[in-house]
Amino acid sequence: MRIYALIVRYLYLLQGSWPRVLELAYWPTVQMILWGLINQFLAQQSPWVAQAAGLFIAAVLLWDVLFRAQLGISVVFLEEMWSRNLGQLFVSPLRPWEWIIALMAISLLRTLIGVGAAAGLAIVLYRYSIFTMGLPLVGFFINLMIMGWAVGLVVIALILRYGLGAEGLAWALIFAIAPVSGIYYPVSVLPECLQPIALSLPCAWVFEGMRAVLIERQFLWEHFFWATALNGLYLLVGAGVWMWAFHVARQRNLLLQLGE
Fold first, then answer.
1. For the chain, where are the alpha helices, taking DSSP H only?
2. Where are the domains of the chain?
């Protein structure tokens, strides 16, 4: 019941503010339009791109799933901090894990709104539907959502521990792994010293799997299992870091006096 009450509260915040809803779809749409144009140009120049319709559109939409999943947790947490509402939340019977589940649920909704709008517009503008990937898309989506949640938990743990001076991590941390995630290119093009780092990231396996579906027309179960196993580890680490930061914040009375 407490989880449901929090989800309803966050839904009311979205419903009562059209700029919030517009912002959810704005950046995924801009990114999709940009990479759609790049995809159209490169399809005329490169047979590798031409044989996979919408390769870069699919890549940017899946990247936005990861980014929006992480941002959905981080931004909602930051809004609670900006309004100095953390103390009020936790003087109630609310348990930390219940709040995290509510954040994950609203993160899922925010991601569906933002990426769903961009995916729909891609059909209109470029006649490409990411949904043609079928069931593999579900596996990609779930794995990217879980990784986004894991990164989001680490981000809010660091903000909780070090205050609003660390809020820039909500946007910066996820982009630090983008170059080694293989979003728009195979992991094999990376320097050899960076390839093990890339393969330790669930998202790299997802994007490699995406290219296999679009170019080779096959779903690689090995990639799916690696992404899922790594995500389980990442989520456990993220939850552990969050619980540690919350315990420290409660001991030091930081929930009532978080600031720069």
1. 2-15, 18-45, 47-50, 55-82, 86-90, 96-126, 135-162, 169-176, 195-199, 202-211, 221-251
2. 2-256
CA–CA separation, 155 and 161 (whole Å): 10
What is the residue-wise DSSP string for 46-79? -HHHHTSTTHHHHHHHHHHHHHHHHHHHHHHHHH
Please write the tens of the pLDDT for every residue from 179-193.
999 898 899 999 999
For the CA atoms of 195, 56, 28, 180, what is the dihedral angle to 10 degrees? Answer: 10
Task: Express each pLDDT in 118-131 by its tens digit.
Answer: 999 999 988 888 99
Considering the entire predicted model, what is its pTM?
0.90
Please give the backbone phi and psi of residue 218, each rounded to the nearest 5 degrees, phi first.
Answer: -145, 145
Cα–Cα distances (Å) from 107 to 61, 75, 141, 146, in that order, read 16, 9, 13, 11
Task: Name the residue among 139, 113, 156 with its Cα closest to residue 242.
Answer: 156
